[in-house]
Amino acid sequence: MHRANLGEFEEMVLLMVAILDKEAYGVSVNQALEEHTGRVVAFGTVHNTLIRLEEKGFVSSELGGATNERGGRRKRLFKVTALGSRTLQEVNELRQGLWQMIPPHTLRLSGL
Amino acid sequence: MNQTPPKWAIYLLARFHPEDTLEEVAGDLEELYAYWIQKSGKLWADLHYIFSVITVLPPFVRRRKKRDNYEKSNLAITMLRNHFKIAFRTLLKDRLNSSLTIMGLALGLACVLLILLHVKDELSYDKGFTSADRIYRINMENIDETNRRWTATSPVLAVEMQKEIPAIQTIARFNRPYPDRVFSYKASSTSEVRQFEEKRGFFADSTVTEMFDLPFIKGNHKTALSQLDAIVLTEDMARKYFGNEDPIGKYIKDDIDNHLLMVTGVIENFSFPTHLSFDYLISMSTIYREPVQDRLKNRTWSGFYNFVMLNKSSTKLGVETKIPDFMVKFYGAIGEKRDKILKSRQIYLQPITDIHLRSHFEKEMGPNSDILYVYIFSIVAVLILLVASVNFVNMATAQAFNRMKEVGVRKVLGARKSELIKQFLGESTLMTLIAAVIALVIFLLALPFYNDLTAKSLSIWTLFTPVNILTMLGIVVFISLVAGMYPAWFISNFEPIKSLKGKKLMGSSVTFVRKGLIVFQFVVSVFMIFSTIVVYQQMKFFQNKKLGFEQEQVVAVKLYGDLYNKVSTIKNELLKNTSITQIGLTSNLPGDRIGMDRLALPEKPKEDISMRLVFGDENLLPVLKIDLKSGRNFLPKTDDAPPTLIINEAAAKVLNVKDPIGQKLIFWDKTVEIVGVVKDFHFASLHNAIEPLVIVNIPQETTYFLMKVKGENLTKTIQAAQNTVARVSPNSVFSYSFLDEKIEHLYDSEQRVGNIMKVFAVFAIFISCLGLFGLSAYVAQLRTKEIGIRKTLGASITSVVILLSKDFLWLVVIATLLAFPLGWWGMTQWLKEFAYAVEIQWWMFAAAGSSAILIAVLTVSFQSIKAALLNPLKSLKIE
Question: In this structure, is residue B70 part of a structural domain?
Fold first, then answer.
């Protein structure tokens, strides 16, 4: 059910939030995406996606404490909710299942 | 090197990015900027930064939803219940002010309901006919100095028009019998004759039945009016003559023309308002049996009401473009030249639905109302509604400070502004609803008085149509919004910290608004009081204006048939009674719409001069005490002598001859002589200027005799006269009226407007004072301590009263000053309707203003004195 509710890019961002573990916020997600997937995306896209993920209930957020960096501005830190992590797992299981079903020679034929 | 992003980009971000995510986004971007500089240099970082800013500006940026999921429902039952509870508690806590506000609103609403029904009724005239949108009356306008418009036209006009213009589907004509008929019915040789004069009836074409959907309850509607000597009666009239008998097939006698008419149908009253009002219809073929047929073929006599119904596919414009050609043919047949035909008159179609409100022309079927009054009443309705809403706004904002703490607590507990606005709007809706229910009750109680006042017969049930109910709901919602919006907005704007601290933020804006609203209320009130005074002055003026003749103690008696034949005997008999001093004969009574006829100077026989024309005898002028200016009165007329004329000054001016006395005129193809000129007198109502008038000495044409009677024992004198008439002419109806009463009736519609204005003026000032009363009570309460201290320090009661009252009174004085130019302008417009009108004088302003101020003083001082009299010991103890 939830899979239908999670787009490909959303999934990526959600994975980054999971990877970053309590340190996920706009900048870090943006940089992680670039680093791990090579995708350079506009800041606004990440910002909007995070908000959307929160609306869908996959992540939750809170404002972190003020620090002396960034002119004392607080960060909004994201973490994956139970629903988010279950969804990620389901997606993964589905993928795994599908991988299992691929006959070995098909992939060989495609050059892998 | 400058290590910050471009200032304008930062500004853009701060200005347009959603406020609630601004902090984190600005921080993120700053961090990224530093990263970009390090990675690829300033220029690249700047570009990157600008691009990123754009991606987080509207419309690209996504906004965070305001609340967490669990608080999404707007219909939180618990909250609603709480709101209701609080609303009722607030209402009950300050009973005086709540009831004042609600009463004010209820009164205002009741007024509005009445006016709404009234206006709807006025606007619905003649719209009930099935083909109302296709029925037109043919009117004619003379193109000359006077531009008179005639609602009655030639008997053959519509008939000929239908032949020429195929778009006309049906025609129907009415002709008012002249003089008014007297009918009689005798059930059997032994029973008593039932005989009455009937003033409301027509000869009518058989097509009338169909065109106007006559509601037949007895008789065959297809044939009822197509037979000779047939008459259709209304239910009421049938009952008057026939009692419980079935009238169909029975004969009723027309005592004027002296022949029998068979009742072929009975109709009930129209179920909708219409300008067509009659008690009987006689089949049109009956009139064509008259011995003298000339006038029925006359193409220039304005005697018939011609109605046409167009085809479904035709338009008024389409027909009217064909009219000039038709006119050339129509009038060409009697030898008129094309140029003259088109230059001297214009024929046009008037939608039947326009007649009631937009038609004040010659020979209207009956008195019509005026669209002006519809406008006036609608405006009055809106004003009264606003005045009542103002009370609500003022009380709500004044009491708002009592609720500051509540608002503070609500806000602290997480209420949003929109929620608070909803709460307070809900409260205003609740109050309006309560007021609406009370308004309905008031409306039901007031309806009979209203019907009395306006001579209408609106029924309670007319209120409960789907449209009306929707309108009422609409009004309730409208008031709730209008009255509730400002207080709701104002209250929900309190800052929680300040309001919890109990700081009185007596914002100057709200005081200003409140003062402005009070001024508005009193402008409306003073304006209405002033209008009422002017209307009443105008009425008084009508009653007291010297008309140029004496209408008092003159009794007009209808003269017809047998009565007429014996008129000289009757005159002699009546004059034996010493209470009757004089008897004169006339064809028309002052105040009647007097018909016009054509005269010509012998030198220019082709140039018609139209003047209003009355027939009378030598006693007419003395009975009415009309003064001669020059010449002499008529001499008693012998049968073979040619008639003589007396004209009024206006007519003398129109004739424009050196000495009118002795001037010969051609009238009815005879040469007649002017023997006298009378001073101008008001033979018509004072709405019109005095027109040229000719009095012709042909007693045979008269239809009334006027008795001048002595003032004492009036009823006895009339009784005696009635007995005399009954003795001399046993089968005649003695139908009489008092001239002065008749003349008073000319101003019924103004009288009605005056009465209505009076009632609404009282309402307006009353509602305004309710508000003022509440506010002054509230202010006095707020300042209880201050007054206590002042009194302890030696302030006199008077000074305290003045202190408390003067703020309010100033407002009323300002309102009075503002109302004057408005009132002056408005009433000048109204008075323009009359040819003879009162001047607006200063004392009228003064009276309106001072009465408003006086009422306000009484209202305010009641509270102020109460507060001032309070023992300071007590007032200081209050906490």
Answer: no
In a domain, B249, yes or no: yes
- Mean pLDDT for the stretch of residues B427-445: 89
Mean pLDDT computed over every residue of chain B: 86
The reply to whether B661 and B729 lie within a common domain is: yes
Outline where B545-647 has alpha helix (H): 561-565, 567-576, 620-624
pLDDT of residue B157: 93
Does pLDDT of B700 surpass 80? Answer: yes
> B472 and B427: one domain?
yes
Residues B814-839 have a mean pLDDT of 90
- Other beta carbons less than 10 A from residue A65's beta carbon: 7
Chain A residue whose CA is closest to B68: A55
Other CB atoms within a 10 A radius of the CB of residue B228 amount to 12
Q: Is the pLDDT confidence value at A4 over 90?
A: no
Give the residue-averaged pLDDT of B446-463.
78
Among B31, B61, B64, B62, which Cα is nearest to B48's? B31
Q: Judge whether B344 and B331 are in contact, CB under 8 Å.
A: no
Based on the domain organization, do B837 and B771 belong to the same domain?
A: yes
Residue B69 lies in a domain: no
Q: CB-CB: which of A43, A48, A57 is closest to B62?
A: A48
Residues B102 and B206 in one domain: no
Contacts across the A-B interface (CB distance below 8 Å): 70
Say what the pLDDT of residue A2 is. 45
Residues of A with CB under 8 A from a CB of B: 25-27, 30-31, 42-45, 47-48, 51-52, 54-55, 57, 63, 69-71, 73-76
Residues of A in contact with B30 (CB under 8 A): 70-71, 73
Cα-based angle B352, B353, B358 (whole degrees, multiple of 5): 100
| pLDDT reading at A1 higher than 50 | no
Tens of pLDDT along B702-751?
A: 888 899 988 888 888 888 888 888 888 887 778 888 998 888 888 888 88
Chain B nearest-CA residue for A52: B62
Which CATH topology does A2-109 take?
Arc Repressor Mutant, subunit A (1.10.10)
Task: Report d(CA B689, CA B414) in Å as an integer.
Answer: 73
Note whether B153 and B266 are same-domain residues: yes
Give the pLDDT confidence score for residue B505 in this predicted structure.
Answer: 53
Q: Which residue range forms the structural domain that includes residue B39? A: 7-55
Is the model more confident about B97 or about B378? Answer: B378
The reply to whether B243 and B256 lie within a common domain is yes
Q: Which residues contact B208 (CB under 8 A, 6 or more apart)?
A: B172, B174, B214, B225, B281
Q: What is the pLDDT of residue B386?
A: 87
Q: What does the alpha-carbon distance between residue B184 and residue A15 come to, in Å, rounded to a whole number?
A: 106
Number of domains in chain B: 5
Nearest residue in A to B66, CA atom: A55
Q: How far apart are CA B50 and CA B619, in angstroms?
A: 106
In this prediction, residue B558 carries a pLDDT of: 85
Residue among A42, A69, A73 whose CB faces B52 most closely: A42
Are residues B210 and B111 both part of a single domain?
A: no
- Residue pair B95/B427 in contact by the 8 Å Cβ criterion: no
B628-678: pLDDT as tens digits: 888 888 888 777 788 899 999 999 888 888 888 888 888 888 888 899 999
Nearest to B807 by CA among B782, B834, B841, B843: B782
d(CA B255, CA B733): 10
Residue A67 in tokens = 């620090």
Considering the domain boundaries, does residue B709 fall inside one? yes
Q: What is the ipTM of this complex?
A: 0.86
Per-residue pLDDT band for B283 (boundaries 50, 70, 90) equals: very high
* DSSP per-residue codes, B684-719: S-TTSPPPPEEEE--GGG--EEEEEE-STTHHHHHH
- The residue among A75, A56, A60 whose CA lies nearest residue A17 is A60
Tokens 């006077």 locate to: B146
The last residue of one of the domains, among B680, B711, B745, is: B745
